[in-house]
Amino acid sequence: MKQNRLTQLLVNLPSAVRDAIRGKAEDIANSTKLRGDPLPLDWNEAAARTVSGEIEELLKRGAAYRNQDDEELTRTDRELAEDIQTATSRAGISNITRTAAYLECYEACPELHWAFLAHIVSRNAGWNMTDLRGSRVADMLSEEGKRATYRFLERSNALIFQDAYPQLLLYRKSRELGASQFHLLRYFSVSRFMRPFWERFWIDRGSALLTVGLIINEQNYIEQRVIRHPFYQRHVTEKSNFHLYSLSGLNQLIIPLREGTSVTRLAGRTVTDFGSLPARIALGKSLYAMLMGLGAVRSGAEAFARAVPHSGSRADYWPDIFTANKEEALTTPLQGSELLESETLPPGERLYSPKLLDAWGDTPYEPISREDWLKDTSALDGISAPQTPLLCDISREHRTGVLKTALAHDAAESIKTD
């Protein structure tokens, strides 16, 4: 039995390589079509220079700025801030509630482009979390490895929401009151970096500049708290299973595009260096330019987000390959063979991708340090106009990623003792 599985795996490899090559050519051709309907992001270079100058001035003022920010809040300010804190805690219970909250913000204020980008990225975080309990990955990692990786993904998702969601609500309250409330950013321990972006946005509603500011801020926010945290470096990012997780095609950020009643294409990018802060910022800007700067991507992504509630299961966007019902999942040990034979999988033979709450439930997290990450001018390097990548459509590349994971699963199965 063991020898037969290994033989079948070796037989499958040439077909998998050919599938990958054909898929890349198809994605390139479809990317050209997606890029055919560009939308202006209205990047304002003069405003970007002004904001950069204001941040440089804040850094020069240093302690004087911090002392000024420690002034007592008025009773009205405190009541508003406490209401926002309560709303943030309520909406931040899980990846499911956070993802929904981002979309609700975008629907209420379409000028908040970052909220929609965060909604899409948060969906991907949920899919990555449930992959750890799905049929492709569950057998390849130890229970300890799965739990550590889940905590890594969940903490990143939770921390970004904790920092960003109050900012979004402050803007909505400012719009309601007709007056800027961004002096309250300090109440939520938001970095000094963000106030110039919000004050500029209040003046000109420049969505692109604010989005870039938020991308830079949130990636810096999690850099020391998660990415460089000793626990996660020791138990996740420096572990071989984390690299297997990437090599197996689970490092793709996808944007499902819906037309009519189904998802027809997948836009997105592949994460090549998650450990690099500049690389993550560049990735965020690239995704933003694709999501909001290409008409076909924006309309398709909006249609998907509105029609399909986020559950964490990859069956949300690919029900012909995945199922959230374990009783209907594929049971054969050689998943790669099934995927090579057909574009889709029949009912009862699909890959198991559970709903997030079934896989992990809600996870409380430990107290979070509140110090300001802004220490020097290095963050200003990322303040530049987002550029749309040449490769936008990754429908076939994503399927190849799923196939690679299935083949990795098959390889693990083939070396097990019968």
TrEMBL record:
Pfam entry (one):
DUF2515
**Superkingdom of the organism of origin:** Bacteria
Q: What is this protein called?
A: DUF2515 domain-containing protein
Taxonomy, top ranks, is: Bacteria, Bacillati, Bacillota, Bacilli, Bacillales
